[in-house]
Amino acid sequence: MSQFIGNSTNRIDSKGRVSVPPSFRPGLRKSDSDPADFVLRPSELHPCIEGWPKAVIAAMAQPPAEIDPFDEAAEDRALLWYGTAVEPSMDKEGRITLPKDLAEKAGITDEVMFIGVGSRFQIWAPAAGAARLAEVSARRRASSRTAQAGGAA
Description:
- The protein is an alpha+beta fold.
- The chain has helices spanning 54-60, 72-83, 100-105, 126-152; strands spanning 7-11, 17-19, 38-42, 49-53, 95-97, 111-117, 120-124.
- Helix content is 34%, strand content 22%.
């Protein structure tokens, strides 16, 4: 499975399309002539859109024999996961159209920031994505300093 690494900011064109970073494209389809093989869905944690390759979703899926059809919490998770997902198309130039409802929820207007998150990626309004990266970086530095201070005692 592909790993999505790095970040890139791209403009949305007049037709509502945005170019997926070239380094992300191999993880989203086998070749330029193949259909896209991923979904977009709203993040449940942050104001962004998440992109998930179908292979990652399949690897995480619970085997049918283990599914309890009367488990309401599991039903809720499945409904949110699958019921809010969209299968976008990607043209030969690697452009996708972001669903308007997902873009609005993420505060995306004329530019997006793609951020790699290993097995998936996120699509943010650029200022919000940059703020998220800075927040996580600051938290990790503080955590590292705390751990070093605790280890030195």
